[in-house]
Amino acid sequence: MNVAIIGSGLTGSLAAISLANADCRVDLYERLSDDELINRDRTYAITHSSRKILDKLSIWDTLINDLVPFQYLNVIDYELNQKIEFNKKDLRKTDQRYSNVGWIADHKKTMLVLLRKISSIDNINKIPTSVIRNPNNYDLIVVADGSNSTTKKKLKVPSFQFDYDQICITAKVLLRGVRTDEAFEIFNSDGPFAVLPLGGDLYQIICSQSRKKGKYNMSLSKALFLDYLATKLPYGIEVDTIVDQANSYPIKFLLNYSLFKGKYIFLGESAHAFHPVGGQGLNLCWRDVESLRRIVSTPFIRTNSFLLPILYSISRIIDIMSISFLTDCLVRYSRINFSILNTPKKLIFFVLRKSVFARKFFLNIMTNGL
Ligand SMILES: Cc1cc2nc3c(=O)[nH]c(=O)nc-3n(C[C@H](O)[C@H](O)[C@H](O)COP(=O)(O)OP(=O)(O)OC[C@H]3O[C@@H](n4cnc5c(N)ncnc54)[C@H](O)[C@@H]3O)c2cc1C
User: Fold this and answer.
1) Could you tell me the distance, in angstroms and rounded to a whole number, from the CA of residue 35 to the centre of ligand 1?
2) Is residue 256 left, alpha or beta, with left meaning phi > 0 and alpha meaning psi from -120 to 50?
3) How confident is the prediction along the chain (370 residues), in pLDDT tens digits per residue?
4) Quick check: 287 and 49 in contact, CB under 8 A?
5) Are 3 and 70 in contact (CB under 8 A)?
6) What dihedral do alpha carbons 140, 141, 142, 147 form, nearest 10°?
7) Fold of 164-250
8) Which among 13, 26, 30 is the best mutation to test ligand 1's pocket, defined by most ligand atoms within 8 Å of the CB?
9) Cα(40) to centroid of ligand 1, in Å?
10) Is the pTM of this model over 0.85?
11) Which residue intervals of the chain bear CATH 3.50.50.60?
């Protein structure tokens, strides 16, 4: 099967490896150089669903050396002073033997591992351009060109999207009072705030807030920004310094009405982009890749390739819809601050603290999808 992939970000690159592994001949189109692809300052939370996908492709054993594991995930409602701790006992039995709830990945190292793997595979041909000269040469065209997909615009594939009126500020900070093996998701009325371990005292903060407040905070000196962070961190955690320059990016909700058009199928952020709360973004993108690999590997579908786009869409719909709904609920939970909702919010924490079943249910959706 001849496949073209547009975009060699983390989705397109993994799709190239997966499809080559399923005996496809892959042309991978990317307009950026490898250095530009690598040099992005992002940090991802990796869940067990991604671990399993990378394991099948023999990438996990290489990548694990660059990941920072965390054994505890603390979910905190800052204003209501409520806390739940998820740990390995809340995972599925098969995931428990890994001891970790998740891992933190640095973009540079992850991208490098994927690009090295690609260069070791004969049936992937990297093409440094954004133009597919002859689409008729391909049985399937995988669109993985990100949330501002130009291919989607050209094909006039509509999507449902709205702006959260929020931006996400990311920075690396040194913290005291945190164990090196714990991560935090803190809900406060500005928006969700994640603290992810990077090894030693170093942590990545991913904090969302209104555009107005975010713009103001980005204009602060490092010292004043540290003061702001100190007011948002739970009691007992102290912030020492910012290691790098804080960055920010706007947050939107985007979901395609259709995951395909003809032989073009949409994967990763070209199909869906959500709020970073819960660290679902990249894991969901990679589950798209895994679904496609499974479908392409089925002999009946290879001989009836016209079925592929529709089967891919059916296979992805529940996972994408449930994660989009859940992440949106988490953003709204955090931002809606009416006192009338305090009791239901406390009840959610009470149920999750008391019920192992509820904790397992919630954590498994977040870590394995549906
Ligand atoms: C600014 C920003 C910051 C982010 N930070 C975080 C974070 O901190 N944590 C997190 O979990 N997630 C983050 N995300 C989301 C995360 O990066 C994505 O979920 C993940 O990278 C997978 O995206 P993707 O590969 O589908 O798309 P992208 O990473 O956007 O990759 C798309 C690729 O397609 C290429 N391309 C585009 N158009 C064409 C074309 N016409 N022809 C050829 N190539 C083309 C682009 O150059 C790019 O390399 C962030 C996203 C953005 C935009």
Assistant:
1) 15
2) beta
3) 999 999 999 999 999 999 999 999 999 999 999 999 999 989 999 999 999 999 999 999 999 999 999 999 999 999 899 999 999 999 999 999 888 999 999 999 999 999 999 999 999 999 999 889 899 999 999 999 999 999 999 999 999 999 888 899 999 999 999 999 999 999 998 889 999 999 999 999 999 999 999 999 999 999 999 999 999 898 899 999 999 889 999 999 999 999 999 999 999 999 999 988 888 899 999 999 999 999 999 999 988 889 999 999 999 999 999 999 999 999 999 888 888 889 999 999 999 999 999 999 999 988 988 7
4) yes
5) no
6) -150
7) D-Amino Acid Oxidase; Chain A, domain 2 (3.30.9)
8) 30
9) 9
10) yes
11) 2-68+102-160+252-368
Q: Is the dihedral of CA 161, 166, 171, 174 positive or negative?
A: negative
Distance 269 CA to ligand 1 centre (A): 7
- Which run of H or of E encompasses 171? strand 159-176
Residues contacting 235, CB < 8 A, separation 6+: none
| Domain limits, CATH 3.30.9.10, in the chain | 164-250
Provide CB contacts within 8 A for 255, sequence distance 6+. Answer: 159, 160, 161, 271, 272, 320, 324
Q: How far apart are CA 115 and CA 199, in angstroms?
A: 24
Residues in contact with ligand 1 by the CB-under-6-Å rule are 6-12, 29-32, 37, 42-44, 130, 144-146, 150-151, 170, 206, 249, 268-269, 276, 279, 281-282, 285
Q: Does the structural domain 2-68+102-160+252-368 have CATH classification 3.40.640.10? A: no
| 136 class by beta-carbon count within 10 Å (0-12 exposed, 13-18 middle, 19+ buried) | exposed
Q: Between the CA of residue 72 and those of 35, 44, 284, 354, 358, what are the distances in Å?
A: 34, 16, 21, 17, 17
- DSSP type of residue 198: -
* Rounded Cα–Cα distance for residues 64 and 147 (Å): 28
CA 354 to ligand 1 centroid distance, Å:
39
